[in-house]
């Protein structure tokens, strides 16, 4: 079942920002002024949707997206009500990303593919448009589902080679939004420390490691703190120009929209400003 109301997909632009948890309206205003077209919020709960409204109230063109709402922790009916409340005030600036999360972090995690489909059935019944939702997708099966039951896919913790393969699966048309971690700091020691800290938390999550194995990484790459190759591919390390090059690599591989998760000291107004300048957003 699909909803009869299916507005045109949102225009996201090429580059956005990805941040864990909630963000302030002040940061949203700053990112919009710098030329970033979207702000993606990592793992938000439906109870935080009021914060999304405040960010949209404070800005004029910035799109806010969830990357992603966990289906096990957030009932679909509540998410649908939150979605409609937001788009009633801001009809063309909110994108709902949903996904099944990680087996290791979710006690209820059983038959995730079926659970995701069931969740989407509820969103359909509640008239959350297919064109205004994306799916967290790593493997081919959910990537295909993302173009059947959503506007596209939002893979996380992937190198440009995954982006290339995902685009081959999706073909032309479906949206492909890729997250890339970057360090906007030329100091190699600090950059590696941040890469280790950021990637290490994922080395024990099977959905990520299984996906990376399919891309040619081996068990040796996953031995803590992670191999230089793995850390270098998943976290672009260096100054603003290196960070910008890492984002452009995904765009060149087929991503429609690339979102930068800026690590460390660069995760502030000055870091975002340097990245925006390197990307020539203005």
Give structural attributes.
282 residues, TIM Barrel, 11 helices, globular
Nutshell version of this structure?
With 282 residues, the protein is of the alpha/beta class. The protein has helices at 25-34, 49-58, 76-89, 112-125, 140-149, 160-170, 188-200, 206-214, 228-234, 240-253, 269-278, and strands at residues 15-20, 38-42, 63-66, 69-70, 94-99, 133-135, 152-153, 175-184, 235-238, 257-263. The chain has a single domain, classed as TIM Barrel.
What does this structure look like?
By secondary structure, this protein is of the alpha/beta class. The chain has a single domain (15-182, 238-278), classed as Luciferase-like domain (TIM Barrel). 43% of the residues lie in helices and 17% in strands. It has 11 helices and 10 strands. It has an 8-stranded parallel barrel, surrounded by 8 helices. The model has no long low-confidence stretch (mean pLDDT 94).
């Amino acid at each position: 079942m699909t909803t009869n109301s299916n507005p045109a997909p949102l225009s996201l632009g090429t580059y956005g920002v990805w941040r864990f948890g909630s963000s302030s309206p002040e940061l949203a205003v700053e990112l919009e002024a710098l030329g970033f077209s979207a702000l993606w919020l990592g793992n938000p709960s439906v109870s935080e949707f009021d914060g999304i409204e405040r960010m949209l109230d404070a800005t004029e063109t910035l799109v806010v997206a969830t990357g992603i709402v966990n289906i096990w922790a957030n009932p679909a009916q509540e998410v649908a009500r939150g979605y409609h409340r937001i788009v009633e005030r801001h009809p063309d600036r909110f994108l709902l990303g949903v996904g099944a999360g990680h087996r290791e972090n979710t006690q209820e995690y059983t038959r995730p593919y079926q659970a995701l489909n069931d969740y989407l059935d509820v969103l359909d019944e509640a008239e959350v448009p297919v064109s205004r939702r994306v799916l967290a997708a790593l493997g081919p099966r959910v990537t295909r589902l993302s173009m059947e039951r959503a506007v596209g896919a939002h893979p996380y913790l992937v190198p440009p080679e995954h982006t290339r393969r995902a685009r081959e699966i999706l073909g032309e048309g479906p949206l492909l939004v890729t997250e890339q971690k970057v360090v906007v700091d030329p100091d190699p020691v600090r950059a590696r420390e941040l890469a280790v800290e950021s990637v290490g938390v994922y080395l024990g999550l099977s959905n990520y490691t299984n996906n990376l194995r399919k891309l040619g990484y081996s068990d040796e790459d996953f031995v803590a703190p992670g191999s230089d190759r793995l850390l270098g591919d998943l976290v672009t390390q260096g100054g603003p120009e290196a960070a910008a090059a890492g984002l452009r690599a995904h765009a060149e591989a087929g991503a429609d929209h690339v979102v930068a998760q800026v690590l460390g000291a660069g995760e502030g107004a000055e870091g975002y400003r340097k990245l925006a300048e390197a990307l020539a957003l203005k």
